[in-house]
């Protein structure tokens, strides 16, 4: 395969999150230096964007087969058991990410129903939380794509 598998949407999200974090942090430093006060919203927005950056970056790494794992056993196994191990790895990851999607969605719905406001800006808390199941769902999609490529022999453990 000539080009690496890609997760363009997640790359764009991660890049935007990082750029916005850098800009609001720089702006906060400048304002603090000039006025001895700081923007109140920067911490809340930065924490939210760090979560987006983390999940989006993890999805990109997942799609590109860049997550750290020990491939010694996988490389030592013959084709049949290796395929079973890849399916087991997918099943384990899909279970965890499925739980994050499920419980993240439940939490977002509850926050919407309770009309909880964020502590810093007073915006609805679900605006931040709804991204958790969405991005975990994207990770699940990328995990499935990666596992499928590995099962079909299009992505080996040696590629990074």
Automatic annotation (TrEMBL):
- Family named by the database record: Belongs to the TRAP transporter small permease family.
**This protein's GO CC annotations:** plasma membrane
- Give start-end ranges for the coiled-coil region(s): none
- Provide the alphabetized UniProt keywords: Cell inner membrane, Cell membrane, Membrane, Transmembrane, Transmembrane helix, Transport
Q: What is this protein called?
A: TRAP transporter small permease protein
Q: Which organism is it from?
A: Modicisalibacter xianhensis
Biological role stated in the UniProt entry: Part of the tripartite ATP-independent periplasmic (TRAP) transport system.
- Tell me where in this chain the Tripartite ATP-independent periplasmic transporters DctQ component domain is found: 21-152
Q: Per UniProt, what is the membrane topology?
A: Multi-pass membrane protein
């Amino acid at each position: 395969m000539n080009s690496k598998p890609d997760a363009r949407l997640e790359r764009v999200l991660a890049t935007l999150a990082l750029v916005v974090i850098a800009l609001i942090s720089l702006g906060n430093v400048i304002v603090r230096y000039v006025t001895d006060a700081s923007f109140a919203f920067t911490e809340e927005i930065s924490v939210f964007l760090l979560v987006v950056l983390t999940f989006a970056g993890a999805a990109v790494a997942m799609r590109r087969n860049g997550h750290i794992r020990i491939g010694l056993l996988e490389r030592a196994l013959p084709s049949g058991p290796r395929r079973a191990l890849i399916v087991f790895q997918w099943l384990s990851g899909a279970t965890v990410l499925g739980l994050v999607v499920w419980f993240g969605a439940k939490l977002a719905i509850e926050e919407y129903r309770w009309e909880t406001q964020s502590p810093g800006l007073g915006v609805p808390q679900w605006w931040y939380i709804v991204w958790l199941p969405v991005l975990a769902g994207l990770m699940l999609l990328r995990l499935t794509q990666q596992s499928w490529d590995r099962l079909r022999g299009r992505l080996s453990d040696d590629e990074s």
